[in-house]
């Protein structure tokens, strides 16, 4: 275990205590976002697989971090006394983690899974009878407070408990409520979505290089274009179509590029890619939840 000294700020004793179990890309993004939103490190605990990553995370964040390879009880220690437990391990490991922490959970602790392909019913089978459960589909921009999350409450989750989880997640992004059968679509659009945008940036950089730009210049142009366009789109009432049209002069350069995308079938390709992500979520449900 890596036990850090108490952080300087005073913890808000009314804020929920959150345990982040498995703090890789996704749960690490949420943890960092929650911390940056002003929640005290005193109200959080985390676990990682290795002692080395536990130490790094503890030093970076001031959160108490337990390493599961050094301490077999790491996850149960982190859960003890938590109001909300965020399960952030890979899908294949979620149900085993539910079994592992079951005895340490209080009846009112809300267990939230951010995993693709793990159903509420499967989690309920691996947690104590009546345990409040929430299934969420997040995305990584939550690390900068710009995530988007779907939430779906389980059978024994009260509206108040769902509101607690939504309130927590809304500190690092936008929260939408969806029925469980729509999580596949959320996964296709926003869960996997940041990767599509980064892929576009990568491809723009490569295309710029092909046209003779220095690699570093191409990188800066692609990165600043994609992130700058994201800022424009993030403004209230901004509309993607209107913003696109504002760049596209009649018979100008952009029109040629947009027509090339459309003639090349980008609309169908994007629909196919979003559906492929959703379908993979379905297949994972079959694989891991029976
Ligand atoms: N990466 C993403 O953009 C998104 C991921 N998700 C979901 O988030 C979950 C995690 O995915 P990533 O963060 O991408 O994976 P990751 O591999 O980056 O993170 C998982 C972390 O859990 C740790 N871990 C594994 N077993 C552990 C244990 N027993 N105790 C403590 N720590 C343990 C691993 O060392 C690793 O750091 C998955 O279920 C995925 O479906 C959902 C939406 C988006
Ligand atoms: O690729 C994955 O399986 C996870 C779930 C959504 C985004 N990343």
UniProtKB/TrEMBL annotation:
UniProt-listed InterPro entries: 6-PGluconate_DH-like_C_sf (IPR008927), NAD(P)-bd_dom_sf (IPR036291), P5C_Rdtase_cat_N (IPR028939), P5CR_dimer (IPR029036), Pyrroline-COOH_reductase (IPR000304)
Pathway-wise, it operates in: Amino-acid biosynthesis; L-proline biosynthesis; L-proline from L-glutamate 5-semialdehyde: step 1/1
Name the Enzyme Commission number(s) assigned to this protein.
1.5.1.2
Q: Which residues form the Pyrroline-5-carboxylate reductase catalytic N-terminal domain?
A: 18-117
The chemistry this enzyme catalyses reads: L-proline + NADP(+) = (S)-1-pyrroline-5-carboxylate + NADPH + 2 H(+); L-proline + NAD(+) = (S)-1-pyrroline-5-carboxylate + NADH + 2 H(+)
The family annotation for this protein states: Belongs to the pyrroline-5-carboxylate reductase family.
PANTHER family annotated for this entry? PYRROLINE-5-CARBOXYLATE REDUCTASE, PYRROLINE-5-CARBOXYLATE REDUCTASE 3
Q: What does this protein do?
A: Catalyzes the reduction of 1-pyrroline-5-carboxylate (PCA) to L-proline.
Output this protein's name: Pyrroline-5-carboxylate reductase
Q: Which gene encodes it?
A: proC
């Amino acid at each position: 275990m890596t036990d850090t000294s108490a952080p300087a700020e005073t913890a808000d004793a009314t804020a929920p205590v959150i345990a982040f179990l498995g703090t890789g890309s996704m749960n690490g993004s949420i943890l960092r976002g929650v911390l940056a939103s002003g929640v005290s490190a005193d109200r959080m605990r985390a676990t990682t697989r290795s002692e080395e990553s536990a130490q790094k995370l503890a030093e970076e964040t001031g959160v108490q971090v337990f390493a599961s390879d050094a301490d077999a009880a790491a996850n149960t220690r982190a859960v003890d006394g938590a109001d909300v437990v965020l399960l952030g391990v890979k899908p294949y490991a979620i149900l085993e983690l539910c079994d592992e922490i079951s005895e340490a959970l209080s009846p009112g602790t809300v267990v939230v899974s951010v995993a693709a392909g793990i159903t509420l019913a499967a989690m309920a089978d691996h947690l104590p009878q009546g345990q409040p459960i929430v299934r969420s589909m997040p995305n990584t921009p939550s690390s900068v407070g710009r995530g988007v999350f779907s939430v779906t409450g389980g059978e024994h989750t009260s509206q108040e408990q769902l509101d607690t989880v939504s309130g927590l997640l809304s500190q690092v992004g936008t929260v939408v409520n969806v029925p469980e059968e729509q999580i596949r679509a959320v996964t296709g659009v926003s869960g996997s979505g940041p990767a599509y945008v980064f892929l576009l940036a990568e491809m723009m950089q490569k295309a710029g290089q092909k046209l003779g730009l220095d690699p570093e210049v191409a990188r800066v142009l692609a990165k600043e274009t994609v992130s700058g366009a994201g800022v424009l789109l993030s403004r209230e009432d901004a509309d993607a179509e209107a913003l696109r049209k504002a760049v596209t002069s009649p018979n100008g350069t952009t029109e040629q590029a947009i027509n090339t995308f459309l003639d090349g079938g980008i609309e169908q390709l994007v629909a196919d890619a979003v559906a492929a992500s959703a379908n993979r979520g379905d297949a994972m449900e079959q694989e891991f939840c029976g």
